[in-house]
Specification:
The chain contains four helices and no strands. With 143 residues, it is mainly α. The termini are close together.
Length: 143
């Protein structure tokens, strides 16, 4: 991967990350009080961290120094994997993968969990695949 390719991929990635988070914010703004969530869901936390890492390693770091091109490649490749998994993780957050118990119903007065099992599984899988892709790119030089 050349620097030109990296810098051509970065704006699209950052736009996708902003769009994903903007969708969440828009949804929460228009939600009724009963549907409004008090916390940022795990898939969005992962997206925000990925967004900050992308901006830091692809925009800020190259301005400050030329020696971290390898890190920028790794971050962009991992961030693309994470944004690809984001819709699946959001679907898991809303329990769209289950036919039964699709609502966020709390049974027996128990507190709802921060993340459900499917959401944790998809999020963990996405982070692991992103780490493997980034490590592979770091070891083998991306090309």
């Amino acid at each position: 991967m050349t620097r030109e390719t990296l810098y051509n991929l970065a704006p699209t990635l950052i736009a996708l990350q902003f769009f994903a988070f903007g969708w969440r914010v828009n949804r929460e703004i228009h939600a009724t009080d009963d549907e409004r969530q008090g916390v940022i869901p795990l898939p969005d936390v992962i997206n925000i961290i990925s967004l900050f890492a992308t901006v830091g390693c692809v925009i800020v770091l190259p301005i400050a120094t030329e020696s971290y091109f390898w890190l920028s490649r790794m971050v962009v490749s991992g961030a693309y994997v994470l944004i690809a998994f984001h819709p699946l993780a959001i679907a898991a957050h809303f329990r769209l993968w289950r036919r039964e118990d699709s609502g966020k119903q709390v049974r027996d007065g128990a507190k709802p969990h921060y993340a459900n099992r499917e959401e944790l599984a998809v999020s963990l899988l996405s982070v692991l695949i992103a780490a493997v892709v980034a490590a592979h790119l770091g070891i083998h030089g991306g090309g």
